[in-house]
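R.M. (postdoc): so does anyone remember the format we settled on? I'll just put the structure tokens first.
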């Protein structure tokens, strides 16, 4: 990541909004924001291959779900946060991953400039690519600051997206079983 470019950009924005970039409270802001972007955009340089490749054998091939995984991401239109919860279910095909690795996979794709739909699909596709389960389903529920603090200003409005792959596709019974697990 080019921190100098980020710093320069932040300085320009501050000047653009009419701020004095040299006043005490702002003097370190460009550097601070550059460091912050390194953290909140860390997923740009990663894929979920590393967390999802650490697998172990499992005899039980029933659905396993991890729900209420809190995430923070940034919308690519306004560069404002959207945050909420991701829920992931998969049906293994002999191999499972440690449950913390599911959370790490979400983090990789959340820490980028994103669209909620794309985030949802990228998580599901990473499971398909690196774990090869019989099926996977991802639900994401989020509140977008670009919808709440500006624009249409509708605090509390939630955007819900989901993606199905493998045996979850066109299988309402399986999908509903996961919806019930999530909303109980
Ligand atoms: N589908 C989808 N839309 C998003 C997401 N994040 C933000 N948006 C929307 O992206 C759209 C961008 O629309 P524009 O008309 O280009 O931008 P704008 O003038 O700031 O739009 P308003 O928010 O309506 O004021 C808006 O409708 C946002 O609500 C997302 O994750 N998925
Ligand atoms: Zn937005």
């Amino acid at each position: 990541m080019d921190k100098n470019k980020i710093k320069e950009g932040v300085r320009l924005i501050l000047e653009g909004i009419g701020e004095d970039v040299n006043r005490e409270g702002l003097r370190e802001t460009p550097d601070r924001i550059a460091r912050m972007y390194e953290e909140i955009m860390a997923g740009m340089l990663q894929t979920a291959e590393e967390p999802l490749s650490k697998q172990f054998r499992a005899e039980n091939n029933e659905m396993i779900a991890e729900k209420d995984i809190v995430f923070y991401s940034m919308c690519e239109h306004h560069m404002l946060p959207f945050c909420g919860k991701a829920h992931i279910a998969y049906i293994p095909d002999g191999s499972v991953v440690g449950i913390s690795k599911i959370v790490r996979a979400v983090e990789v794709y959340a820490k980028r400039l994103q669209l909620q739909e794309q985030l949802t699909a990228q998580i599901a596709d990473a499971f398909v690519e690196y774990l090869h389960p019989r099926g996977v389903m991802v639900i994401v529920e989020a509140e977008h600051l670009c919808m709440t603090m500006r624009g249409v200003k509708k605090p509390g409005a939630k955007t819900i997206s989901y993606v199905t792959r493998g045996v979850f596709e066109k299988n309402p019974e399986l999908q509903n079983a996961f919806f019930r697990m999530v909303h109980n």
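R.M.: ...and that's the designed sequence above, right after the tokens. Also worth knowing: The mean pLDDT is 97. The longest strand covers residues 64-75.
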